[in-house]
Design brief:
globular, alpha+beta, seven-stranded mixed sheet, STM4215-like, 10 strands
Length: about 130
């Protein structure tokens, strides 16, 4: 699964829960983005509600099977509650239900560093089989 297909699937799965980006020109768009590690939003962008951040590069998890190996892409997704109003548990549950083999953990963020209510979801996509 490529990153654009994954983003579209996540957006559809969480459509009723995703917050809003308000861009510097005052236009709005759903608060879901694909970013590299350490990459931030464009200057002047404000976030309300739950933001979904998908890291651009997946990890590759290999599994040895009888006479052949399999590999799974493990994508890192961050759910960030900017207003303390979102149900991150509900969002994580929907993702885990849609992508079996995935898991979620709460993230502890020190006060003053960023939004305090966050979760990381390690989402596993369908395996690729290698000879």
């Amino acid at each position: 699964m490529d990153i654009l297909a994954l983003r579209s699937s996540i957006a559809a799965t969480l459509s009723s829960l995703i917050g809003t980006y308000t861009l510097a020109n005052s236009s709005t768009t759903p608060a879901i983005s694909v970013r590299g590690t350490g990459e931030s939003l464009p200057p002047g962008t404000r976030v309300s509600g739950m933001e979904v951040v998908i890291l651009r590069e997946p990890e590759l998890d290999g599994i040895d099977s009888y006479q052949r190996g399999q590999a799974f892409n493990r994508w890192t997704i961050y759910l960030v509650d900017w207003d303390m109003t979102a149900s991150l548990q509900e969002a994580a549950g929907k993702l885990i239900w849609a992508w079996p083999g995935s898991n979620a953990v709460s993230i502890t963020v020190p006060q003053g560093v960023g939004p305090r209510h966050q979760m990381r979801v390690d989402l596993q996509t369908n395996p690729e089989t290698y000879p």
